[in-house]
Design a protein that fits this description.
By secondary structure, the chain is mostly helical. Strands 1-2-3 form a three-stranded antiparallel beta sheet, with no helix packed on it. A hairpin with a 2-residue loop joins strand 2 and strand 3. Helix 1 packs parallel to helix 7, helix 3 packs antiparallel against helix 7 and helix 7 runs parallel beside helix 16. The radius of gyration is 31 Å and the shape is elongated. It starts with a helix and ends with a helix.
Length: about 475
């Protein structure tokens, strides 16, 4: 999910912001500490870091591009400025050491130094977000939620520029911009240029700052999700078996497109399963589920009448899904016949699985109509070939539309969520981390400008004076 990638990236970048002397963490000399690596080894590590940095910068650019409208909208000037500077200051592959980007070996192999390893983990999280999460997020995100992506891109850019100003002593280091930087991390003079990537990142971060954990949690739940595993078969008896089969039915409807015959078999079995579930819920006085399951059985009865004998499909499979639907029906029949009483957990799972299955059935039917995989017969015609000199009467099929099968559209609406969109979950586990990351970026910049490098709060000049007095 997008939130997991963002959390991993923020964790690695926060660790980098806390490493205040990059040369020291690469094995360079520091005060009385002798160097533990050679200049060539530090230069090789710096080259890897530059390649890692490009992966992260490219991800920030893609985030801004996915979130920012292509046309001008009032109030979106800050994101557009950030996008401009991300594209302007984007590191070029030909300017990287070796004139190449990070390869698979550099991204997969654990690095020797803590500094290079933190950069590698940040680059790996950015690559995962760019290649796996962002394409899905860009398709699912709503316009009013895009500001969360803008803030993530802005904070990430701000952190990269802060580190860029700190890394100038490393051998072979190449600055991101000629404008978006302090003179160096150790200077007491820190010019803040309005026309720069740094100011654009800070402005865009402030622009997207006022978001709630609930709003961020919705976006964090978007993206790639590993498919849930199928429940093992043969299924157990009773309600446990019905839940396992219903779970697998939901998954299989997502794995493969069902043919019209398989879809009709699924709808027929789900009608019976819903009626049996209503009877079982009545035995424990679960009135809400009784009403809901009874209404669901009626909806599936209506849908079955619209599908049977009228809708056909030249493509599709779905035999396994139909078998699972029938298995759920048989298991529910066994439970009702034996007089079993469902537990509250059984009822909760039935309610959730019914809702999920209904949404997926509606999505598959809408897909079949849109892609012309499902056809409807409207009239009879004579076959083009003869059998014994006689032309047979055959059905003539055509793509489904609102004129030739209007009642099907009304029936599908009974299964989709009220908003017509998939359910959007709220999860705030990663949302609060954005504020912590922004505070870490701000604190790192302030400490760099005030020349404070350690937790004792003393500047370099104060510590030098104190050491001289101690002598």
């Amino acid at each position: 999910m997008y939130g997991e990638v963002t959390s991993a990236l923020h964790g690695a970048m926060t660790q980098l912001l806390q490493m205040r002397r990059p040369s020291y963490f690469l094995g360079g000399a520091n005060g009385n500490r002798q160097a533990t690596t050679t200049p060539d080894e530090r230069a090789a590590a710096t080259a890897k870091i530059l390649r890692y940095r490009k992966v992260i910068w490219d991800y920030a650019l893609d985030l801004a591009e996915a979130a920012t409208p292509v046309y001008a909208i009032d109030g979106w000037e800050a994101p557009r400025r950030l996008l401009h500077w991300l594209a302007t200051d984007q590191p070029k592959t030909e300017n990287l050491p070796g004139a190449r980007g990070a390869n698979a070996a550099e991204l997969a192999a654990v690095q020797d130094s803590r500094l290079a390893e933190a950069w590698r983990r940040a680059a790996l999280a950015a690559l995962t977000g760019r290649e796996r999460e962002l394409p899905i997020v860009a398709e699912e995100i709503r316009f009013d939620e895009a500001r969360i992506l803008v803030r993530d891109a802005a904070d990430l850019t701000w952190a990269l520029l802060t580190l860029d100003a700190r890394y100038f002593p490393l051998p072979g280091w190449r600055r991101l911009s000629t404008k978006s930087k302090w003179q160096d991390a150790y200077s007491t003079k820190a010019p803040h240029l309005v026309d720069s990537a740094l100011s654009a990142a800070q402005l865009a971060s402030a622009w997207g700052r006022h978001i709630t954990d609930a709003e961020a949690g919705v976006v964090d739940r978007l993206g790639f999700r590993a498919p849930a595993p199928l429940m093992p078969s043969p299924y157990p008896f009773g309600f446990d078996g019905a839940l396992a089969a219903q779970h697998n039915l939901y998954l299989r409807l997502g794995y493969e497109f069902p043919s019209a015959d398989a879809l009709a078999a699924i709808v027929r079995a789900q009608r019976m399963t819903s009626a049996l579930a209503a009877h079982a819920a009545e035995t424990v006085d679960a009135d809400a589920l009784v009403i809901r399951s009874g209404r669901r059985a009626e909806n599936y009865q209506t849908l079955l009448g619209l599908l049977a004998d009228r809708v056909a499909s030249p493509l599709g499979r779905g035999q396994d899904a139909a078998a699972d639907a029938e298995a759920a029906q048989r298991a529910m029949e066994d439970a009702v016949a034996a007089g079993d009483r469902p537990s509250p957990e059984h009822l909760d799972w039935l309610r959730a699985l019914f809702t999920m299955t209904d949404a997926r059935v509606a999505a598959r039917i809408n897909q079949g109509i849109a892609d012309q995989r499902y056809l409807v017969w409207t009239e009879h015609a004579l076959a083009g070939v003869t059998l014994g000199g006689v032309h047979r009467v055959v059905r003539k099929y055509e793509p489904i539309n609102g004129r030739n099968h209007p009642n099907l559209y009304a029936a599908i609406k009974q299964f989709a969520p009220p908003s017509g969109q998939p359910e959007r979950f709220v999860e705030s586990a990663h949302a609060h981390g954005r504020d912590a990351f922004r505070r870490a970026v701000e604190a790192a910049g302030e400490k760099d400008k005030s020349r404070i490098y350690h937790g004792n709060g003393m500047s370099l000049g104060a510590r030098t004076a104190a050491s001289m007095l101690a002598r």
